[in-house]
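Q: Convert this sequence to C-alpha cells.
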Amino acid sequence: MSVHAFLRRSAELPERGRLAACRAGDAAFAAARRAVSTAALPWPHEGQASVEVEGVGSLGTVGEQIPVPIASLTKVMTAYVVLREHPLGPGDSGPVVRVDRAAACESGSAVESVVPVAEGEEFPLRQLLAYLLIPSGNNIARLLARWTAGSEAAFVRRMNEAAAELGMARTTFTGSCGMDTGNTSTAEDLLLLARTVMRDEVFRTIVATPSVRLPGDQGEARTTNRLLGRYGVVGLKTGTSTPAGGNVLWAAYADVGGTRRLVLGAVLAQRSGCSPVRARAAVWAHTRRLVQAVGHAPLDALATPRPSVPATRDARRSAGPGGPVALSGRGRAG
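A:
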C-alpha cells in the first residue's frame, strides 16, 4: 500500500484497526502513521483548508467541503484550459492575440482587477497569461476565453468539462474570471487542479514571477501573492471579494523528511461577507502560519487535521441560489 493510499484509508478506519495493522507489520502503513502525529498544524478556525505534500499525500483537510465562491482562484482553471488548448514550451511566447473592443473597454473598470490594454494591441499568449495570473486581470481572462473558444459561454463549458475530467466533483464555473459567485469549489477540489497545473513549466514560471511590465509606459504590476519568495513559496493564486472572502491557493517547496518536496495548500472563505480588506488580512495570516509550519517541521511532526469546522453562515449564503452579493466598494474583485 502506498503512503498516499494509507493517508486516505486511515481516516476511514477506527483507531483499533490502525493499531492492529501496524502490529501486523504493514511497512507502508506504519511509515505513514509515523508521518502523522498528534502535533497540530495551525489550521484556520473558519472556512476550509487542505494541505498535501507531493509524493507523500494529504496532511489533512478542515472545514466542511461544501462549494464556496472562489473569486479569482477561477483564473487557475482559465490558464489550465488555455494552455491545454495552446500548449507552450519553456521558451515559447506562443501565438499572438489581438485585444478586442470588450477587453479594452473593461480596462477602465473601477471595481474589478484589470490590466490596461487598448483595442487592436497585440500580445503573445505568454504575456497575456502573465497579465492573467500576476496582477489578476479580469478583462484578460475574458479576452482569452473569447479568443480560445469563440465566446465566454463556450469557454466556460470547457472549464466545467476539464473540472469533471480532473475529478473536481464539487466545482462549478460560470465565468472565466471569478467575478460572480457562481464560480464555486472546495479546498480539496482545488488541490486536484493545483497538482495538475503545476506540472506545466510555463505555468510554474509565471506564478513564481513577482511582477510584470504593463503595456506602454504604464510601469509594472506586482503579483497579488504576498508570500511569493518567502518561506519557500513559489505560487500560486489569490482571490478576494466580499461574497467569497479571502482565498489563497499556494505552492511552496519544503524539506520534508530530508527530501525537497512541493507542498500545495488551499485556504478558502476567510471572513466571507466582510470587506475585502479584512478578508485579505485573515487569509494571509492563516496561510502564512500553515506555510511556515510545514516548512519548519519534519515530516514526523506534521499532524492529522482537527475535526471539521462548519462553514460560516456567510459562506453558505453566498454559495446558495440567491445570486451574487454586491462587492464592497473598499476592494476590488481579484
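The first helix runs from residue 3 to 10.
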